[in-house]
Amino acid sequence: MELSQAIRERRSIRKYKKEEPPKAVIEKIMEEGLWAPSTTNQQPWHFYIVRGADKDKLAHIISPAGQVILPKLERAFRDKPKVIQSTLEFFNTLGGAPILICCYSQSSPVTAQPDSTPTYLRTCNIDRLGKIQSVSAAIQNILLSAHAAGLGTCWMTAPLHVADDINRTLGMGDGELVALVTMGYAEGTAAIPPRKEGKLSWIGF
User: Would residue 152 count as lying in a domain?
Assistant: First the structure.
């Protein structure tokens, strides 16, 4: 599969078959995730690939996050109640996905920023921001690699609302949860959302 095809055809999958992908396939996908660019080549990521009863335990913990983001869903999809309902069902079951990937960045101490630092960067930690972006780049690699391998995925950030519970379940004493990714063989097809216009500004062309 060509890269352009993978980029355009990849979809967020919220319903999966029970069949579990072979471990060798998952290993290859994760390895390609590790080839993402990262801030000062720190490669500041760690991924927990979870299945079976441990995945089911995490699914139970994640479920309440759907209710937390319900007001946001109602604003975004006020005319699409079926979308809201299907999203809440996804949080309750993870769509039956057999694999759950917990994506972490290595923790960064909060340090004072020099006065010359742009205001928006003074309000956060630059190193932390770079690490989160690095993990996000690795996640995109994983999504595209999974699609090329015939698997579906869904990038989830709403579970960050229950990050403390997820961390305790995984025994995480360090690092920051950036996102979760469900993975498995897709059940059916996902709709193609149109691309929004006005997102590019060409300067000097």
Answer: yes
Q: How many domains does the chain have?
A: 1
Residue 64's domain comprises 3-185
For residue 140, give the nearest of 10, 1, 19, 24 by alpha carbon. Answer: 10
pLDDT in tens, 113-153: 566 666 655 556 889 999 999 999 999 999 999 999 999 99
153 contacts 146 by C-beta, under 8 angstroms: yes
27-40 pLDDT, tens per residue? 999 999 999 999 99
DSSP 78: T
Note whether residue 204 is domain-resident: no
What is the end-to-end Cα distance of the chain in Å, rounded?
A: 32
With H, G, I as helix, E, B as strand and everything else as coil, classify residue 98: coil
- CATH number for position 168: 3.40.109.10
Asked if the structure places residue 203 within a domain, the reply is no
Lookup: tokens for 77: 């999809």
